[in-house]
Amino acid sequence: MDWKDLLSSVRLGVPESLQPALPGRSEYQRDFDRVIFSSAFRRLQDKTQVFPLAESDYVRTRLTHSLEAASVGRSLGTLVGAALMERYPDLAELPVSPSDFGAIVAAACLSHDIGNPPFGHSGEDAIRLFFESHPAGQQLLAPLPAPLRADFLQFEGNAQGFRILTRLQSPDNKGGLQLTVATLGAFTKYPRPADYAGTNTGVSTRKHGFLVAEKDHFTEVTRGLKLMARDPQAWVRHPLAYLVEAADDICYHIVDVEDAYRLGILRYEEVESVLADIVDDKTLPRRLAGMRDDKGRIEYLRARSINALVEQAAEHFLAIERQLREGHQDAPILGAVKATAAMTALRALGESRIYMAPPVVEIEAAGFEVLAGLLAVFSSAVEAQAKGTLNAKERMRLKLIPAQFLGADGSADVHPYQRLLRVTDFVSGMTDSYAVSLYKKVTGISLPGG
Questions:
Q1: Do the beta carbons of residue 48 and residue 62 sit within 8 Å?
Q2: Which CATH class for the 3-116+157-240 domain?
Q3: Which residues pair with 234 in a beta bridge?
Q4: Which residues pair with 309 in a beta bridge?
Q5: 81 near 99, Cβ under 8 Å?
Q6: What pLDDT is attached to residue 10?
Q7: Which end of the chain has fewer CB atoms < 10 Å from its terminal CB, N or C?
Q8: Which pLDDT value is given to residue 406?
Q9: Contact 115/163 with Cβ under 8 angstroms?
Q10: Is CATH 1.10.3550.10 what the domain over 118-154+358-450 is classified as, yes or no?
């Protein structure tokens, strides 16, 4: 693949003749701004990063995590861009600058979690489980062909995010937010559908990145970027997607231990040990000893760790950049850097002490009941509307569904796949607090003013 194609500023759904350039503001900066002002991005302020419904105002939400990832992604992209501009002088013909690489990665990082449902990754599991084993979910999927069923049985926040960016936000526009194909390519870490039957076992096919409903949009992106086909169902990742993945991994692994320390889940000594190994600086003990408290020491270690990993990730990316464009590399960037062993220890600490902590597990377990209950209630009402069998209870529940999640005239969509997509859009787009509150109300656990 060629960087001149991979950096395309053509916007999804907009003819090139209608894409005026704005002096002083790149197309990729405009992508960033469109995402940050979207309602779906604002809702991330009340969506779980690790600690659901946290009472502390210190810990990260999906919104703060996304902003931090965008900051790291901008640094990564700009470092890489500066080196690539020297390596390939003809890129100046586009024209692009190192900051454009950074802006693409930052915009993709900003939106990388925009499709996540309430309660974090356990929310994804809850939606999958509803369609897999709940009687109502099984009945809803029964009339659908296998490729359409796969979109729900393997519900994936990344694919839902692509749907949000290209259809649900600014729905009156063809292409939704109409982001550049470069940003959408960098956003799509998993360029394959849910019913993938290929043999590639690399990181890019671990999950799926688009729904059947958005296949045309994804095809437009692949053509605009001239992405290579890996097989009949999968494509080679946009190389900058590896930087988006690295920025996400750097942020959540490191800041999760910082949050866990502030919540008293981890001791200072545990956090210092793993972060010091990443920094790998012999002068570090003396610098830490001169600080007044452990909180400041952890913050310093976090900053130094992120900086070390950014430099190492950029260096490794540049070493394998050609192989990435040829489709010969398909592994996470952080899996082959100097601090790989330290990152492995960091992941192990998170899995054993943070993600299984009682406050996390208790609320995530409750999230399974909340999301299954909401899906059952609202899908039942929509199906009854489609069949013309609405009773009084279902009619009242239908009124709780915003108009954009129903048909154009407020009626149910004719196709059962589209009806189910709209209900899933509604429930997965909820914030944690709203999902809990609405579940209590529709099940009668609590009443307004009660």
A1: yes
A2: mainly alpha
A3: 231
A4: none
A5: yes
A6: 94
A7: C
A8: 86
A9: yes
A10: yes
Which CATH architecture fits 246-354? Orthogonal Bundle (1.10)
What is the distance between the alpha carbons of residues 67 and 65, in angstroms, rounded to a whole number?
A: 5
Q: What is the pLDDT of residue 236?
A: 98
Question: What integer pLDDT is reported at residue 25 of this predicted model?
Answer: 82
Q: Along the chain (450 residues), what's the average pLDDT of each consecutive run of 10 residues?
A: 96 78 83 97 85 57 94 98 97 92 98 93 93 95 96 97 97 95 98 94 96 98 97 97 97 90 91 95 94 94 97 98 97 96 92 77 83 96 92 92 82 86 96 93 71
Is-above-0.85 flag for pTM?
yes
How many angstroms separate the CA atoms of 87 and 18, rounded? 33
Please say whether the beta carbons of 161 and 83 come within 8 A. Answer: no
State whether residue 96 is helix, strand or coil. Answer: coil
Residue 72, token pair as written in the block: 């790291």
* Model pLDDT, residue 112: 97
Distance CA 63, CA 38 (A): 12
Question: What pLDDT shows up at residue 278?
Answer: 96
Whole-angstrom distance, CA of residue 254 vs CA of residue 391: 51
The two structure tokens encoding residue 308: 């070390």
CB 431 within 8 A of CB 118: yes
For 136-170, b where at least 16 C-beta lie within 10 A, e where not — what string? bbeebbeebeeebbbbbbbbbbbbbbbbbbbbbbb
Measured from the Cβ of residue 359, the count of other Cβ atoms closer than 10 Å reads 15
Query: In whole angstroms, how large is the CA radius of gyration of the chain?
Result: 23
pLDDT at 434: 94
Q: Retrieve residue 243's tokens.
A: 């930087």
Q: Residue 277 has what pLDDT? A: 95
Return the domain boundaries, the chain: 3-116+157-240, 118-154+358-450, 246-354
DSSP 47: S
State the Cα–Cα distance between residues 118 and 436, nearest whole angstrom: 9
**How many of the other CB atoms lie within 10 Å of CB of 416?**
18
